[in-house]
Amino acid sequence: KSGFVAIIGRPNVGKSTFMNRVLGQKVAIMSDKAQTTRNKVQGVLTTDDAQIIFIDTPGIHKPKHVLGDYMMKVAKNTLREVDAILFMVNVEESIGRGDEFIIEMLKNSKTPVFLVLNKIDLIHPDELISEIEKYKDLLPFAEIVPISALQGNNVETLVNVISGYL
Ligand code: GDP
Ligand code: MG
To answer: Which residues bind GTP (predicted)?
Structure first.
């Protein structure tokens, strides 16, 4: 099994930290230098049963007028061409304009979208249920997976969930 997975989310939600966690140091260093959506960061994860190519999409959260029509097209094509989309949010923060822009872009997506609630280490476990409630009706998510990219909680589960869709 193999497939392409795009990671999308507003700045500081933990996309690079997640890439780092699953792929190792090198990729995150690249991702900090690459500041345009054109320089997509790709890293390949090989597990026992799958090969997953991750694509970090650092610029896609930006509103249309900032991104420009060309970049908008590039972004949408990227999301169309991948096998799964990880929409990452910071579980500790409320839904912002950057998130709403992404949600709008992902509406009617034929590619399965996984909601990744990151930074669960910063909230009480009881809060997680109400956070999931806030998000679950925004899009028809294929899966909702809470993780801590920093501490590694549930990251392996997320990889297994992704593999299940490839
Ligand atoms: P990006 O802009 O989406 O690529 O976000 P980064 O990966 O650069 O992370 C932004 C900040 O959030 C950094 O200071 C990370 O250490 C921190 N961070 C990322 N994931 C987690 C997490 O699971 N828990 C906590 N507490 N901090 C995190
Ligand atoms: Mg980053």
So the answer is: 9-16, 56-60, 118-121
